[in-house]
Amino acid sequence: MTNLTDNVFYNLRIQTGMTAEQVAELLGVSARTVRRWDSGEVEPKKMVLSMLKGVAKKARLNAAYASSNKSAFSFIDLFAGIGGIRIPFQELGGECVFTSEWDKFAQKTYAMNFGEIPEGDITKIPASSIPAHDVLLAGFPCQAFSQAGLKQGFLDTRGTMFFEIQRILSHHRPKAFVLENVKQLRGHDKGRTLKTILDILRGENEHDIPENIPMSEEAKRSLGDELNYWVDFRVLRAADYGVPQNRERVFIVGINKDYYPDADFNCIFKWPEATVRETKLGDILQKNSDVDTKYTLSDRLWEGHQRRKREHKLKGNGFGYSLFNRESPYANTISARYYKDGSEILIDQSELGKNPRKLTPRECSRIQGFPEDFIIDCVSDVQAYKQFGNSVAVPVVREVAKALLDAMVCASRVRKAA
To answer: Do residues 8 and 37 make contact, with C-beta atoms less than 8 angstroms apart?
Structure first.
């Protein structure tokens, strides 16, 4: 039996701040296995130690940063995915005090990059157990409103996650929030779905909510609570903010009028303006000659793509694969289904006499504007594709974050003067 002070695994686990149960969930093993590693009864594989070292390092860096820097504001990160929305708010001086993400693979990537494992299913977490915070962030599930899904909206369980956000807003009344979803939310059900969301956030009395939609009991009870937020929304395109991707998303921003009663946010809040810098896909691409051949399409898959495109053309539509090169100004929107065949973004390799290829996971990270040191190799390529396809264009969030925080600072001055 190894002395605990000499047990590398135990010491690393303590440095991460995670319990044996949390580590077990993160690594996909039993809690009993982790306890045996803790006691020294069994020695874990080097891969396990390497992963924990990474998490422990991030946890130490976060702790050191927090102790040496007084945070300007606190925020929570809901439906966090791999932390794309968190990154800009943390860069701008915010402290993340709570995170929720149910997908175990996304939790692993999140832990490797932020030194903490998110809490699980938000529907099972009471609002009272979530710390108080200044800003609520949520890229809530979009499949219920997307073109790729069935557009069920609130009738889809994923579409009801908005009501979990509503109950947390109702309980904590943070100063502000930022919500993100697919562009299709704007026109879903002829605009009625978005109108219902905005009405609830603004504290309007009439809510056009379908009967018997699934949601937690706490969410049902909080529906009668009236919020009082100034709210606005806009569809922003990633390519307008320096990201070579034609990705459009709805951003909904809200600021608490009860906290800032004298501020006119119609004048104070300014949506970020598009940059004038042109984008080029080559800026994020690796050299084709340097890319592993496993990302090149097989003859069979490439022929299938070409056949389907020809069939669609005969039907008079433009469906099918999309081919890009280094000179392309931007690519199509990367989706969570990219791992299946990569058809929405294929990279031309004709100069090498090869079939087109898919983006590599690192290129997917770059096309979403993640930092170059963002850790992506802790999960499989399939999971990495899903994670980046489900994530956000970080530079777009950064501009929205700056606009929101500037408005809050301005409103605070008005509040003090009143």
So the answer is: no
Going by DSSP bridges, is the β-strand pair 135-138/323-324 parallel, antiparallel, or unpaired? unpaired
Q: State the CB neighbour count (10 A cutoff) for residue 120.
A: 15
Cα 34 to Cα 119: distance, rounded to the nearest angstrom: 19
State the Rg of the chain over Cα.
23
Our answer to whether residue 267 is catalytic in this structure is no
- Please identify which residue in the block is written with the tokens 């956030």: 201
DSSP class of residue 320 equals S
Pair (57, 99) in one structural domain: no
CA distance 238 to 274: 9
Complete DSSP assignment for 199-237: HHHHT-S-----TT----HHHHHHTTSPP-EEEEEEEEE
Q: State whether 299 and 311 are in the same domain.
A: yes
What span, in angstroms and rounded, lies between the C-alpha atoms of 23 and 116?
Answer: 10
Q: What's the CA gap between 291 and 301, in Å, rounded?
A: 18
Half-sphere exposure of 17 (CA within 13 A, CB side): 14
| pLDDT by 10-residue block (mean), the chain, 418 residues | 70 87 85 91 86 82 69 93 96 94 93 90 93 95 55 54 92 97 86 87 72 75 84 97 95 96 94 90 97 97 93 81 96 93 94 97 97 92 96 97 96 75
For residue 46, the enclosing domain spans: 1-69
Do 84 and 118 share a domain, yes or no?
A: yes
Question: 156 and 209 in one domain?
Answer: yes
Alpha carbons within 13 A on the beta-carbon side of 86? 24
Query: Do residues 18 and 114 touch, judged by C-beta distance below 8 A?
Result: no
Distance, in Å, from the CA atom of 102 to the CA atom of 110, rounded to the nearest integer, reads 11
Find the catalytic residue in 96, 142, 364, 378. Answer: 142
Tell me if 31 sits within 8 A of 20, measured CB to CB: yes
